[in-house]
Amino acid sequence: MGSEITVEGIIEDIDVVSGDFTKAIQCKYHETKEKYKLSDIVKPILQMLVHYCKNKDKNIQYILYAHFSKETEGEKLLSKDDIEVILKTTNKSYLNYISTLKPPKDTQIKELLRKHKKSTEEIEKIVKYYKNAIGLELQIDIDEFLTPERFKFIIGKSFDTLIKDTKQLLKDQSDFTEVDIEELFYPNAIQKIANKSILHNSDDRKINSANFIAELKKNKKTAITRWTKELLTYETLLKKRRSQLKSNLQSNHRLRYFIFDEYSIEGFEDEIVQFISDYISKYHYKIKLHSKTPIFCIKTDSTNLISEIESRLYQKGLSFQNGIKGNNFYQVEFLKEPKKIISENWREFQLRICKYDDNTAKALNSKKSDDFFIIGKDNFDLIDKQDINIEFLEISNLKELKYLLILTEDLK
Asked: In degrees rounded to 5, what are phi and psi of residue 234?
């Protein structure tokens, strides 16, 4: 089995577990800072000290992994004096750490610290107490904590170097090609780790390297999300994802649904009508061949956004079905097929449009699409995703979406 890694572990970032021994690692990257200052690492050190204080009997090594551009790579020693300086911090954000390591003797201060919400005056009172307090008993042995078996402070490689090393490890431990690692498996690995990092149950955040590689092999779609957008090769990833989408887009007889998270897409209100128009012009204009009416569903808290979009669609000459009769939504009306007059190249409506809610989700689930495009950050849990081709595209604007769907040739 080898080592097991937990993402977002006992003191943030990752835990590496081998048998009964755990390496608890925090990573602090300061690419814009040239030289290290003690103030840069106060919070992670306090977090480690607090955890150590509560788990002295556990076989845990705490590792702080940091990068400063002008610091020499390798292990850096922290002294007892450094720890004592950190313990004297009066930063209001660190009061809970300090009070755990140096419990107050004053009963009133103890009561204030127990309060979930504290007023500004109460916080100032606690800060003042710790500034002036003497003789408080430290709950840890600093010398014992600073032994190499317990703690290491390492100046690590640059972020760019780590990326190269990680890609090389993927190559060494798999049969992936360099191109596939660059365009598919590395971005998907980043996304997979990001997905695990937000899970509540620690067991769900665990990763075994062999299983991790095997799971990466199964996914042949490049992740396009806010995490992979940070990669240096984002445009390359978009190009790769575009090529993956191309095959299904070339098919004339596929039913496609689009569902948008309005709030996670820049300029959505301004650009959505033009996007729909461009899509219809390319993929739903042949009355004989393009027989599957697309649906555009929008998640929004706005009470009038959908009606405003409908007005603008009408002004552009686009006919639609929204399933609304009076004040109510009717699924049968929404999903009915448009009448057609082939000889006149006319159809009753070119698209369906709706606001995302319980009723419209039921309608979408009742008639499953071939392709379901989920656009934005929301997972849309009301949608039944079984037995359909789901395309998750966490783009930041509709220009990127138009590029992915081959509605434009560039991202400009």
From this structure: -60, -45
Q: Is 0.70 topped by the overall pTM?
A: no
- d(CA 145, CA 87) in angstroms, rounded, equals 14
Q: Read off the DSSP letter of residue 146.
A: T
Rounded to whole angstroms, the Cα distance separating 205 from 192 reads 10
Confidence (pLDDT) at 317: 96
- Write down the H helix ranges in 284-386: 305-315, 331-335, 358-366
Domain ranges of the chain: 4-102+139-155, 103-137, 164-218, 251-404
Q: Which pLDDT belongs to residue 1? A: 43
Q: Is residue 231 helix, strand or coil?
A: coil
pLDDT in tens, 128-166: 999 999 999 999 999 999 999 999 999 999 888 888 998
Amino acid at 82: D
Spatial neighbors of 98 by CB under 8 A, at least 6 apart, are 46, 87, 89, 130
CATH topology (fold) of 251-404 = Aldehyde Dehydrogenase; Chain A, domain 2 (3.40.309)
The answer for 139, left when phi > 0, alpha when psi is -120 to 50, beta otherwise, is alpha
Among 387, 388, 352, residue whose Cα is nearest residue 373: 388
pLDDT digits 0-9 by tens, 53-72: 999 989 999 999 999 888 99
Q: What is the pLDDT of residue 2?
A: 53
Average pLDDT of span 309-327: 97
- List 374's β-bridge partners, or say none: 259, 392
Q: Please list, in sequence order, all residues whose beta carbon lies within 8 angstroms of the beta carbon of residue 166, skipping any fewer than 6 positions away.
A: 186, 189
- Provide the β-strand partners of residue 329: 324
Residue type, 173: Q
Radius of gyration of the chain (CA): 28
CB 152 within 8 Å of CB 75: yes
